[in-house]
Amino acid sequence: MTHSAIVLAGSRPGPDPFAASFGVATKALIPIAGEPMVRRPVQALLASDQIGDVLVLAQSPDTIAAILPADPRLRVAESGGTIAATILALCASADTRWPLLVTTADHALLDTATIDEFIAAAGDADIAIGMVERANLLRRLPQTRRTWLKFRGGAFTGANLFALRSAKVAPAIEQWRAFEQDRKKAWRIISLLGPLMLAGAALRLLSVDELLSSLSDRLGLAIKAVKLSNPLAGVDVDKPEDHALVEAILAGRA
């Protein structure tokens, strides 16, 4: 079964100083190794046998479409105002081809091997979430700074990779929409499980798999963490330091 890939290339409301510092209108157009950043994950997706078609969603689709490769499997369309609104619109559309693999335009180091590994490991989960374990990433990039989610047995950072099996996930996205502006604050989402689970997570009494098992029961969905082998899957380009790091990695200097 091939997945339809969704690349989120939208912008937050208001000016983007990071994009402006490179003389472009949106972060997806920031150059990485001489090409607009969004091209890199798109090309990796198109190169995977596990991907059937690729849909890039942005507030300025014509601008994004102008810099993407010509490929009959690739489309660009207008995104919603937020990530949650965009995914919910896909859930409601009769034209959506399931299952979906969702990633972001700033996943500049995404490669085809990671895509294939993620899809294979996601299996039949309703929702699969890509993660990179801290020890794995710090072995490769000892000085990197990430947002770490700490659990019993290890700490993890997100890999901006999600698999959504069907429109059945819509209620989970509705729940997440309430916390979307605080998505870096995992405790707000964990609080859905009640005070005992929140305390267990805060005290690191739970593994990530145990926590997601409880969340699965709460939402009536199979939710799975996929721990990726490539540590660079945990690096995105969200600020100038990330840009410098990714450029150095691609040039063989990091």
CATH topology: Spore Coat Polysaccharide Biosynthesis Protein SpsA, Chain A
- The radius of gyration over CA amounts to 18 Å
In the CATH scheme, the class would be Alpha Beta
Percentage of helical residues? 25-40%
Q: State the CATH architecture.
A: Alpha-Beta Complex
What shape does the CA trace take?
globular
Mean pLDDT over the full residue set: 90
Task: Give the N-to-C terminal Cα separation.
Answer: 36 Å
What's the total helix number?
Answer: 11
Quick recap of the structure?
The chain has 254 residues and is α/β, with parallel strands linked by helices.
Summarize the SSE layout with pairings.
Layout: E1 3-8, H1 17-20, E2 31-32, E3 35-36, H2 39-46, E4 51-58, H3 61-65, E5 74-78, H4 83-92, E6 100-104, H5 112-122, E7 127-133, H6 134-140, E8 149-151, E9 154-164, H7 170-177, H8 186-190, H9 195-202, H10 208-219, E10 223-227, H11 240-250
Parallel strand pairs: 1-4, 1-6, 4-5, 7-10
Antiparallel strand pairs: 2-3, 6-9, 7-9, 8-9
Helix pairs in contact: 4-7
Question: Explain this structure to me?
Answer:
By secondary structure, the chain is of the alpha/beta class. The chain has one domain: Spore Coat Polysaccharide Biosynthesis Protein SpsA, Chain A, CATH 3.90.550.10. Helices cover 35% and strands 21% of the residues. It contains eleven helices and ten strands. Strands 1, 4, 5, 6, 7, 8, 9 and 10 form an eight-stranded mixed sheet that branches. Strands 2-3 form a two-stranded antiparallel sheet. Strand 2 and strand 3 (35-36) form a beta hairpin. Helix 4 (83-92) runs antiparallel to helix 7 (170-177). The radius of gyration is 18 Å and the shape is globular. 38% of the residues are buried.
